[in-house]
C-alpha cells in the first residue's frame, strides 16, 4: 500500500457488500450475531465499516449468507485484507486522539473536502511553526516530544494529500478573523501568509475569505468539514472545536443543509481571486511595515 492510499475505501465497499449479502439471505443483524455467536455490536461495527474483519470471520460470514460463487468469495477476502493493512499514520495511533486518527483515514480517502474555519488556519494549510504554536496553545500540557510528533503528522498529511498524483478537490473558507489574528503574530505571519498565497495558486485548492464587512452571518458559530467519497453517497460531517471534535454520519438532510451553508458562505466571500488579492495585499503591508 502506498502512502497516499487508505484502507477505508475497501472497508466501506466490503461493508456495503456484506450488508447486501445479509439482506439477500433474509437475515437480520440480530440473527447473524446469534448464529455466529458474536455480540450484536460486532456485526453493527462491521456493517458500518468502523472495524475490519478477519479472513476466518469473513469466510464464515459468507458461508452463513450462502455466498457460493468462489470468485466473489476471493474478491471479498482480498478486499478484507486490504481493509486491514497498516498505513503511514498507524504508528501514530498511541499519540493521536481517536477522532483525529479516524479523520486522517477519511481525509485520505475523500475525493472532495469542503472546510470552513473561523478560528485558525486549517491544518492542511499550516506551516510547521504555525502548527507548533497552535498545538501548544490548545494543549499546553503536552510534552515537547508529543507536540513534535503532532506537527510531523500534520506536515505528512499535507505532503501526501496535496502532493499525490490524484489529490482531492479542496475548498477552504476562512473567516477574515483567521487572517487578522495571524497578521497580529509577528513571529508567524510572513511565512504563513506566503504559504496561503502559494497554496491559493494551486489547482486542486480553492481558498476564500469571508470579510468582516458582511456583518453577522449564519456561519459564525460553526467550524466544520464535509468529506465526500468516490462512488458513495455517504458523506461525512466533521465538527471541531478547540477542545473536542466529532463525526456525524447523519442523514442526507444534515449534509445537504451544511453544503448549502458552505455555498452561502462562498457567495458572501471575496471569492478565489479576491481572496488571493487580499492575501497578497496583506503580505505587502507586512513587508512595508518591516
Plain-language structure description:
- The protein is α/β, with parallel strands linked by helices and 290 residues long.
- It folds into two domains: 8-83, 434 Repressor (Amino-terminal Domain) (Orthogonal Bundle); 88-289, Endonuclease, Chain A.
- The protein is 54% helix and 11% strand.
- It has twelve helices and six strands.
- A six-stranded mixed β-sheet has the order 3-2-1-4-5-6, with helices on both faces.
- The longest helix is centred in the middle third of the chain and has 19 residues, at 144-162.
- The chain is elongated.
- The model has no long low-confidence stretch (mean pLDDT 88).
How are the SSEs ordered, and which strands pair?
Elements: H1 8-24, H2 29-36, H3 40-48, H4 55-64, H5 70-83, H6 98-109, E1 112-117, H7 128-138, H8 144-162, E2 169-175, H9 176-183, H10 189-200, E3 205-210, E4 224-228, E5 236-240, E6 245-248, H11 252-268, H12 271-289
Parallel strand pairs: 1-2, 2-3
Antiparallel strand pairs: 1-4, 4-5, 5-6
Amino acid at each position: 500500500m502506498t502512502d497516499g492510499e487508505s484502507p477505508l475505501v475497501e472497508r466501506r465497499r466490503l461493508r456495503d457488500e456484506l450488508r447486501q449479502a445479509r439482506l439477500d439471505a433474509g437475515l437480520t443483524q440480530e440473527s447473524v450475531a446469534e448464529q455466529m455467536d458474536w455480540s450484536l455490536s460486532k456485526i453493527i461495527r462491521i456493517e458500518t465499516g468502523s472495524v475490519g474483519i478477519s479472513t476466518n470471520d469473513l469466510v464464515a460470514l459468507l458461508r452463513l449468507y450462502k455466498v457460493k460463487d468462489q470468485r466473489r468469495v476471493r474478491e471479498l477476502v482480498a478486499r478484507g485484507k486490504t481493509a486491514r493493512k497498516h498505513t503511514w499514520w498507524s504508528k501514530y495511533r498511541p499519540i493521536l486522539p481517536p477522532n483525529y486518527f479516524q479523520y486522517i483515514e477519511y481525509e485520505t480517502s475523500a475525493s472532495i473536502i469542503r472546510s470552513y474555519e473561523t478560528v485558525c488556519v486549517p491544518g492542511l494549510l499550516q506551516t510547521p511553526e504555525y502548527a507548533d504554536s497552535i498545538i501548544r496553545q490548545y494543549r499546553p500540557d503536552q510534552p515537547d516530544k508529543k507536540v513534535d510528533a503532532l506537527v510531523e503528522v500534520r506536515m505528512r498529511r499535507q505532503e501526501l494529500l496535496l502532493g499525490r498524483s490524484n489529490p482531492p478537490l479542496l475548498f477552504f473558507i476562512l473567516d477574515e478573523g483567521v487572517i487578522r489574528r495571524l497578521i497580529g503574530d509577528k513571529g508567524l505571519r510572513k511565512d504563513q501568509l506566503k504559504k496561503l498565497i502559494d497554496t491559493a495558486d494551486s489547482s486542486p485548492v480553492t481558498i476564500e475569505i469571508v470579510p468582516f464587512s458582511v456583518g453577522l452571518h449564519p456561519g459564525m458559530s460553526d467550524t466544520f468539514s464535509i468529506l465526500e467519497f468516490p462512488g458513495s453517497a455517504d458523506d461525512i460531517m466533521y465538527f471541531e472545536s478547540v477542545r473536542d471534535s466529532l463525526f456525524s454520519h447523519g442523514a442526507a438532510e444534515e449534509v445537504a443543509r451544511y453544503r448549502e451553508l458552505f455555498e452561502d458562505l462562498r457567495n458572501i466571500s471575496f471569492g478565489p481571486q479576491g481572496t488571493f488579492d487580499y492575501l497578497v495585499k496583506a503580505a505587502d503591508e507586512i513587508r512595508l511595515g518591516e
